[in-house]
Amino acid sequence: MGADPVEGDATPVLAVAAGLDADAKPRRILSAFRRRGDEEVVALIEEAWVRSPVTG
Predict the structure, then answer these.
(1) Using CA atoms in the order 6, 9, 11, 14, what is the torsion angle rounded to 10 degrees?
(2) CA distance 3 to 28
(3) DSSP string, the chain
(4) This prediction's pTM
(5) Sign of torsion over alpha carbons 5, 32, 18, 25
(6) Digits of tens for pLDDT over the chain (56 positions)?
(7) Which of 12, 19, 32, 38 is the most exposed place for a label (fewest CB within 10 A)?
(8) What domain of life (predicted)?
């Protein structure tokens, strides 16, 4: 499978978990989690991405 999320970029893993293609942009990933009502997940992802910026 893909890279270990602890060692690399977890963005593809989050995208697939949100029901999107692995190459989805971070903004689409957040939107998908928001639509599902997963505000706690959105907050954690935003916090992580603010600390370690994700390109895209």
Answers:
(1) -20
(2) 21
(3) ----TTTS--HHHHHHHTTS-TT--HHHHHHHHHHTT-HHHHHHHHHHHHHSPPP-
(4) 0.72
(5) negative
(6) 444 444 568 899 999 999 999 999 999 999 999 999 999 999 999 988 887 655 55
(7) 19
(8) Bacteria
Integer-rounded Cα radius of gyration of the chain: 11
CA distance 23 to 28: 10
One-letter identity of residue 23: D
> Is the Cα torsion angle 31, 26, 7, 48 positive or negative in sign?
negative
Tokens representing residue 15 in the block:
């995208």
